[in-house]
Input
Amino acid sequence: MPNALRVAVDLVVFTIRDGALQALLIRRGVPPFEGEWALPGGFVLDETLEAAARRELEEETGLQHVYLEQLYTFGDPGRDPRGRVVSVAYFALIRPEPVRASTDAAEARWFPAAKPPRLAFDHAAILEAGLRRLRAKLGYTTLGSQLLSEEFTLTQLQSLYQTLLERRFDKRNFRRRVLSLGLVRPVRGKTARGAHRPAQLYTFRSGPIQVLDDPIL
Amino acid sequence: MPNALRVAVDLVVFTIRDGALQALLIRRGVPPFEGEWALPGGFVLDETLEAAARRELEEETGLQHVYLEQLYTFGDPGRDPRGRVVSVAYFALIRPEPVRASTDAAEARWFPAAKPPRLAFDHAAILEAGLRRLRAKLGYTTLGSQLLSEEFTLTQLQSLYQTLLERRFDKRNFRRRVLSLGLVRPVRGKTARGAHRPAQLYTFRSGPIQVLDDPIL
DNA sequence: CCAAAAGTGTTGAAACTACACCCATGG
DNA sequence: CCATGGGTGTAGTTTCAACACTTTTGG
Output
């Protein structure tokens, strides 16, 4: 019988806060890398890999029904000083607001995804992979919907794309595009939120994420 | 300490034969699923996951320096009757010709990727995932280069795309496209192979696979 | 000389880009 | 009344899709 390894899941959890993409990190309370920042995660029990990821995510954030997708599996010998650990990374998207990003024991905080602190293990590489995946899929899926609240203005949607892709779009062209693709549907009512002219609210037509025949960008 | 699982790699190995996409399958010589067809693969030793995949691939096909890419990780409890096995699937592309798809002991054969025989474990799902990945990446990377010999005619390249995507392209438009993208460079000399007018041979400009700014299709 | 694949241009339609001003509201 | 973000149309350019005939070679 071949040697036994341990299998873990690690989570790259993204949200938008203060107009920037942020990732959830945990301060480790136990060795190895005690006191350092790391991705949330843990060992897989008698459950599917995705269930393990959901369980860890709920333990850390209290959130359920979150968009979750398998990212990549990291398994180099030596990536964990405790021994051979193969880690299946998932990435999760959290809508703004109702986040209590603090768990019972360990400290949990949001950090700018672009420049995180020094991370334990190979977690910097995992985070990096999550970022690449997010950026890539933004263009040809409706993934972005999972980073906004259910109802949003077109300006918010445009800012999302501009923030993540570090690119600027023309307002009229952007609106024409998403509208003509039929991805999004106006909602009766307005947002009073601004101290300015109220904006029409929209929702994504499709509940689950879909891959587009022709890309948004 | 958490429960120990075992980690395996499984390989979806594609090639083009007889003008069709084929996948390499192995007849299992031992239980479980003895006598049934399965993807090549095996348990991970003290090596990286990719190294494990390469090792298994060389054992089965004798091939080295093959294009290999991690595909997805399958880990449902119960997917392997022997106990909990998490399998990291890789997919590999083999150029035509120099394949001895037969290993020492077990029987190995190519099957049409679109309609394989009944497969052991959850290997049908893994194969399916490989197919989807291949088709998707064909459009926006130079992945296809790994399924052709180093030098090829534009007609061969077009057939490759048509076969995999089950779609027909206009010859002039196709050629204009790949040529104007500068992906491909003519080679001095012709192919005498046909009983017809000789065709110009081309090679891909870039050795390794690259992601394209704007897609081929 | 014939079968078979190689090679090559044009045109109309559609999509894309760049660009500037008026509107509605809260303070 | 003014500052702030919301909302809208057009024209020039580029890209895309559809389409058919001549060329070269081996047998």
The helical segments of chain B are 49-61, 123-140, 154-165, 171-180. The mean pLDDT of chain B is 92. The interface with chain A takes residues 1-7, 43-49, 70, 72-73, 75-77, 84, 86, 88 of chain B (CB under 8 Å). Chain B has four helices and ten strands.
